[in-house]
């Protein structure tokens, strides 16, 4: 299998760097092909702008969606965007690895998503009508592929628990897991989160590394997060409201988990 790791941390000697190196070695030793997009090392341009769209009329106002649609369809994207899209298409599984900064991914990784997920590639795919609102949320370009987050956080696990001050980690990561990954079709695995990273001694690091190895060994067998499919009959189209008989007994973002497939 082919795995793409999109890595966003500026320091290769960090905990993230060590875990990234371990993941690459572990996957390769298990017989998998591994590609790494080390965004800081690549000098990745985070800001989406008119330079991303070749042959664009710079005298006209930039309409990002239309420019992205035309560039993708006409092989007129900047070379770095096209290269990352090629990696995504080749990968059987994608891992996004990053530190949790200000409750989300680092800006450079958000910029990777904004630039690489072009119209016709990451969004704007499929039929849009009164009965079907595109191929998204369980369908799309990446349907049949798997994805997982590896996230480091400075706070304690209790800080990100049900009653924790920071909010539930599943809620904080929902825009990434459900939006960035499930939206274009990935089967999304539960995130691998390492807490209290400032208190990482050698013994705990070795335990964390072993636990990560176990998770990597189940990339293709673990049960994905049971997100509902948009076009699977659970939502009214085109309002996208969950049907009233579903999600009973659940609260907040958990209503988008299929109770028929989750515990």
TrEMBL record:
Keyword Metal-binding: no
UniProt KW Oxidoreductase keyword: yes
GO cellular component: cytosol
InterPro entries: Flavodoxin_fold (IPR003680), Flavoprotein-like_sf (IPR029039), NAD(P)H_dehydrogenase_qn (IPR051545)
All copies of domain Flavodoxin-like fold, residue ranges: 1-213
Pfam families according to UniProt: Flavodoxin_2 (PF02525)
SUPFAM superfamilies hit by this protein: Flavoproteins
Keywords, comma-separated and alphabetical: Oxidoreductase
An MF annotation (GO) of this entry: NAD(P)H dehydrogenase (quinone) activity
PANTHER family xref list: NAD P H OXIDOREDUCTASE-RELATED (PTHR10204), NAD(P)H DEHYDROGENASE [QUINONE] 1 ISOFORM 1 (PTHR10204:SF34)
Similarity-based family: Belongs to the NAD(P)H dehydrogenase (quinone) family.
Name recorded for this polypeptide: Dehydrogenase
Species of origin: Steroidobacter agaridevorans
Classification lineage: Bacteria, Pseudomonadati, Pseudomonadota, Gammaproteobacteria, Steroidobacterales
